[in-house]
Amino acid sequence: MTHVLVNVHTNEPSSVVAEAQRKCRHCNSSMPDHLSDEFCCHGCRSAFALIESFELDRFYEIVQENSDALRPAQVQRLDYRLFDNPDFQKEFVESADLEQQTAHFFLDNMTCYACVWVCEQVTKQIDPNARLSINLASGEATLDFSQGKIALSEFLHKFEALGYAVSPNRDFHRDGRSDIARIGVALFCLTNIMMLAFPEYLGASSLEDRFRSLFRWISTVLAAFSIFYAGWPFLKGAAYSLRKREVHLDLPIGLALVVCFFFSLGHTIIGHPHVYYDSTAAVVALLLIGRWVQGGALRRIARQQSQFLEGDYRFARKIHEDGHEQLQALPSIEAGARLKILPGELVPLQCRLMSGVADVNYSLLTGESASQALQQGDLIQAGALNGSVPIEVLSAEPGFQSFLLHLHKASQDLYRRKGHYLGLSEKMAKAFVYFVLVMAFSVLIWNLQFSAEQAVTRFATVLLIACPCIFGFGAPLVIARAMGLGIQRGVLFRSQKALERLVLVRNFFFDKTGTLTEDNSLLRQARWNDLQLQSLHLKADQLLALFRILPSLSGHHVLAALARYAGAGDCDRSDVRAVHEVFGQGFSLVWKGFDLRIGRANFCLNEAIVDAHALEFSYVTLHGKEILRFQLEDRLRTDARVAVSTLQKEGKQLYILTGDSSERAEKLAISLGLGQDQFAATLSPQQKLDFIATGLGTAMVGNGINDSLALARVEIGIAVANATESLKEQSDICLLRPGLDPLIRAIELSASTRKAMVRCFTFALLFNLIGMTLAVTGIATPVLAAILMPISSLSIFAIAQRWQ
Amino acid sequence: MEILYILIAISLGMALVGLVSFLWANASGQFKDMRGPAEKMLYEDKDTRP
Fold first, then answer.
1. Residue A247 or A573, more confident
2. What is the pLDDT of residues A352-389, one digit of tens each?
3. pLDDT band at residue A312, thresholds of 50, 70 and 90?
4. Residue A384: helix, strand or coil by DSSP?
5. Contacts of B14 in chain A (CB under 8 A)
6. CA–CA separation, A692 vs A507, rounded Å?
7. Partner residue facing A137 (CB), from B4, B35, B40
8. What residues of chain A lie within 8 A of the CB of B27, using their CB?
9. Helical residues (DSSP H) of B1-50, grouped into ranges
10. What is the pLDDT of residues A277-300, one digit of tens each?
11. At CA A258, angle to CA A256 and CA A259, rounded to 5?
12. Mind listing the pLDDT tens digit for each residue in A23-48?
């Protein structure tokens, strides 16, 4: 099969492209010079191979926008066999009958029609009867397939190999169509009412009475349609609020709509000049549009959020009878199953400890960070964080009863409700509602002594002129827009507090390894002690085989570096017991009967250290005898220097907190242009916590479970893109792209969000102050209120939507 | 001025036609995906491979 390398963006022949810069054959991004390959990464190579094997080369002709977005992830994010689990499927798969199922999920990275096309073709080739349809705009996909013939995971694995990650769509029942229909109806009513009201704007005398009365009656019908069909959500909300005796923004809105409608209806019947159908219809239309935009933004954020947490505690690592481990959906775990939990992972359900000893803490649930030592047979609660040893447990309850699942569901529900992000403005909204209601009713009662008509007129004026827009959709729109912009710029704000307060943070604490530096550090100056090896009758190959399995014991970067150093080859799965991690020191384990240690000199070596030079190394020792010494080479993240100097320019105080040696910390601090007092080395997680004296105005940026204590102490905890799941879970802000550049973007965004908020609030406050004064004193007529109200709504809308 | 009766009826009728067709389009899912179908038609006829 010939595939001419053509730059599909411009359709230039390959020779021209080759001269300019070599591009990856799959994703067409420019390639690093040192690669002699046709592909920029392994993911692109396999995606290309997959597309070729299905004979779908046309993909490269129709793809319009090939860029980094096309590049598949190099590591598989999820084990999609989970998606075959019947319990898990309940959340996103509908079965018409035994033969036919429909799965609802999201496909990420859909950039243009070529992506849709290639996924559809691949589906067809896997099973000609299966049908995939993809919404290119939203990434929602539905797959009709037959579970009995081909498992769902077969399809999903292929999609991910092509670079489209899959996450289940649990919200598939939601249909946005009724929202759009309501907006359409509201706008229809508004425009026609305004057309009919136009003569009245020009003055009462410009129209004969019979026409005016006709126009009013037509308007009455239109307004009723607008309020009782399009505005139904507000009326329902107001009724709910009354029934539950909870103050809610819908209450004054619903009240104003109903009062204005019946007031105008009364005036229409008796032929009184003032009717307010136009303003009522305008309020309905604007509020509906505001909520629709806001709802869409919040759903996008909730989706992003759920993608993050998908891989974590919703699954458990089950050990089967034959000893092999498999990730399984938590709801499908039965009571009495054997599970394995790695250091830094969450305990997914209530269980009993099987293996020796363990230390866990409940910091995620209670904030209490002290770890508890446990013995074999002890009960562990769901939500505990496993400390330093991989443990085996027996589940004490079926997975679907897990407290964590309930928690997860509760928080998902919260994200669906609009109020979740709106701490401050929600409180102010409540106060505002009370204020408006009290004002309106006191105006009503006070004016009753003069005349009923004056009382009702002013009552309606107050309700109408009081513009709840800032709370109703102004603040939510600002927040929603900020969160949306955040995701575009590689930042996920997990709370409104984080968004509002990040810009105020003065002191930033950084973890070193994996945060400021790449987490795939390399071994440097590795030196084997051959004499020792010989005297113990061992070969270096045996240790290398052990190194390859180390990452399965703990996610610590030293173990990962050793595994990388060992490269590919045989693995030694036998005889590793009693793995124990001493934070900041190293690991000890029993291997072939040896006491094997990996870590710092004073932790590993028996003899006293004589020369300071030896302290700079890390060691692998057997019974305290040196086998291998090495240093880890820190590779500074490419954007770390720029990020640090940007933060310093803005007057922030930066500190590096690390469990590593002072030499390495100092070297790094100097290369970043930080002073002597701006780093602290050889810190345990507890010492990291102590270093951060006060919580206010501080932020901690970290990646590992050893940062979790510090992250809990600071005001805003930030997890970098490669952080462990439980740290992300605990953080206020997750960076979505590697590096520290997203952090700078996040701070900028926080600053502009605050500005936009302040602008909105100031405008609304001024408007309401003036308006209320006019309404209470009777200077403003309801007509004026009705004209002012939409103007203020529109201004707020414009302010909330137009900022960068 | 009697013409107003007819004009109003016509204008409301036209607006109603617009609203009904909007509601129909919405109900039949035409606003669900604003990108896919527009791009799809450019490639559909070539879908059959030689």
1. A247
2. 888 877 888 766 555 455 677 788 888 887 778 787 77
3. very low
4. coil
5. none
6. 9
7. B35
8. 177, 181
9. 3-27, 36-43
10. 887 888 788 778 877 876 776 676
11. 65
12. 777 777 666 665 556 776 666 777 78
pLDDT value at position A217?
A: 92
Q: How far is it, in rounded angstroms, from Cα A781 to Cα B2?
A: 33
pLDDT digits (tens, 9 = 90+) for A681-719: 877 767 777 777 666 788 889 887 677 777 777 888 898
Tokens of B14: 């036209």
**Most confident residue range from A64-68, A169-173, A408-412, A624-628:** A624-628
User: Are A135 and B4 within 8 A, CB to CB?
Assistant: no
Question: Please, which residues have CB within 8 angstroms of residue A513's CB and are 6 or more apart in sequence?
Answer: A519, A521, A557, A634, A658, A660, A703, A704
Cβ of A62 within 8 Å of Cβ of B43? The answer is: yes
Q: Cα A503 to chain center, whole Å?
A: 19
pLDDT at A232: 93
Could you give the angle at the alpha carbon of A114 between the alpha carbons of A110 and A120, nearest 5°? 85
Write the CB contacts of A557 (distance below 8 Å, at least 6 apart in sequence).
A513, A514, A519, A520, A521, A632, A704
pLDDT confidence bin for A419, thresholds 50/70/90: very low
Q: Are A663 and A617 in contact (CB under 8 A)?
A: no
**How would residue A798 be classed by pLDDT, with cut points 50, 70 and 90?**
confident
Yes or no: say if A27 and A42 are a contact pair by the CB < 8 Å rule.
Answer: no
Beta strand residue intervals within A424-558, DSSP E = 491-493, 507-511, 522-528
Q: Give the phi and the psi of residue A607 in degrees, each rounded to 5.
A: -70, 155
Question: How is residue A233 written in tokens?
Answer: 């959500």
Alpha carbon of B23 to those of A42, A178, A181: distances in Å?
A: 48, 9, 6
Say whether residue B21 is in contact with chain A using an 8 A CB cutoff.
no
Chain A's closest residue to B7, CA to CA, is A196
Give the pair of three-digit tokens for residue A104: 């609802």
Question: Between chains, do B8 and A218 touch, taking CB under 8 Å as contact?
Answer: yes
Residues of chain A positioned with their CB less than 8 A from the CB of B19: 184-185, 188
Neighbours of B44 (CB within 10 A): 12
- In this structure, which amino acid lies at residue A301? I
pLDDT for B18:
95
What average pLDDT does this structure show over A198-207? Answer: 71
Give the separation between CA A57 and CA A164, rounded to whole angstroms. 17
In Å, how far from its chain's centre is CA A200? 51
Please give the Cα distance from A277 to A274 (Å, whole number): 10
Element of type H or E holding A379: strand A379-380
Q: Is B31 on the interface with A (CB under 8 A)?
A: yes
Q: Which of A55, A137, A214 sits opposite B36 (nearest CB)?
A: A137
pLDDT for the residue numbered A221 = 95
Of A117, A176, A181, the CB nearest to B43: A117
Two tokens, residue A256: 């104003």
Residue in A632, A621, A619, A689 with CA at minimum distance from that of residue A660? A632
Distance, CA of A770 to CA of A791 (rounded, Å)? 14
What b-and-e string marks burial along A635-648, b requiring 16 or more CB atoms within 10 Å of the CB?
eebebbeebbebbb
Interface contact A112-B39, CB threshold 8 A: yes
CA-atom Rg of chain A in angstroms = 32
Instruction: For residue B24, give how far its alpha carbon lies from the nearest alpha carbon of chain A (Å).
Output: 9
State the DSSP H helix or E strand holding residue A716, giving kind and residue range, or none if neither.
Answer: strand A716-719
What are the residues of chain A with a beta carbon less than 8 Å away from any beta carbon of chain B? 55, 58, 62, 112-113, 116-117, 134-138, 176-177, 180-181, 184-185, 188, 191-192, 195-196, 208, 211, 214-215, 218
- The secondary element (H helix, E strand) that includes residue A261 is helix A250-270
